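DM from R.C. (forwarded with permission)

"hey, sorry to bug you on a friday — could you get me a structure for this? deadline for the figure draft is monday and I only need the backbone to look sensible"
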Amino acid sequence: MAQTIDKIIVHADDPGLMYWFVDGARMGPLRRDYADKLAIEVGALWNKAKARKVEHLAQLNACHAAALAFLAKRDFTQALLLERLCRKWPEAIAQVTVDQMRAAGWVDDKTYATRRAAKLTERKIVSPEFLQARLSGEGVPDSIAQKSARAAATTLAQLCAEAKRLVRAGKSATSIARVFSRAGFDLDTIESAFAKARIPWNTDS
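My reply, with the result:
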């Protein structure tokens, strides 16, 4: 049986939110623009269909607020944000929120990849393959991950310079090769760096 909305009040701390009362029971809060779309006003009918719509919008509103809170603390890819939101909200609600964040510029996979790649290579040697795999694992699309990895990863010239520095520090070619291997470089690349740096290395040792 339909009931009637008999009172509306504005949220004391946020004028963009409002509550309404149906037979003395308080409902909400809900954004005023959402409430206007649903014709929530004094004298309007209140029924189960409208209650379901309000619940859907309330979930969207709460999910949106949570997404903004997450993004205020750290960067997310679209995939990472969706996964985080799906821990509490239905996937459909979470996906709409992620789409809204992307449209508003709060989530940008290219920006994330550029910043993350710079962080992962800060004062470190990292191969393009290792970096691409890391970015892809964090939800960056493969094409973006590959481009960002190539731009930020250690070049052959930088690898050669690092090899020379480690030799001057007293490291053996074998120990340097192990360091480079752990950073994701394959044998051919390591050999090329050693040859360019004129560092003798017996691969059988």
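R.C.: lifesaver. The beta strands are 3-10, 17-22, 25-31, 45-46.
me: no worries. Residues 109-152 form one domain.
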